[in-house]
Amino acid sequence: MRLFIGVKTGCEEYLEALQRQLxxxxxxxxxxxxxxxxxxxxxxxxxxxxxxAICGALGRIRLGRFMLFCEGVQAFGRDILSAKVGGEMxxxxxxxxxxxxxxxxxxxxxxRRPFKPHITLVRRFRPFGAFDAAAVDATxxxxxxxxxxxxxxxxxxxxxxxxxxxxxFLEP
Length: 172
Description:
Blueprint: E1 2-7, H1 12-25, E2 26-30, E3 38-45, H2 48-59, E4 66-75, E5 81-87, H3 89-104, E6 119-127, E7 140-145, E8 147-156, E9 159-169
Antiparallel strand pairs: 1-3, 1-8, 2-6, 4-5, 4-7, 5-6, 8-9
């Protein structure tokens, strides 16, 4: 099973509006609406029996909900464009740390790379000409982080599908 842990933003309409602007400026592999999310931890291939332990560990996280926002576009890596994320970043970092601790308790190694919150809009972006991310409308869109989701990444009918396997709701 190919697994990752993430959060849904609830602002897919806004993210799609950013994608519509980007499609006028370049081609690439655009993330489908139902797959838009922010990854907290990518786990990769995991044996099915380990998924239960992950669910149990995530269910023990005791953190409250908090607010973030999306605002405009940024380059993420060489050819990836993502929505910028801001807001209560200290609380997001605390959630990431709790998820990582939970995973360590399940036998996973801690991530060596620093956590860089983002929402991938397009991979393998190829601009039609000169490209400036600042030219994309940067209207702010707030969202509440109220749950953590264990997703399985699969392919169905040639499409990438992120199936929620377990949802842990954060405290009000």
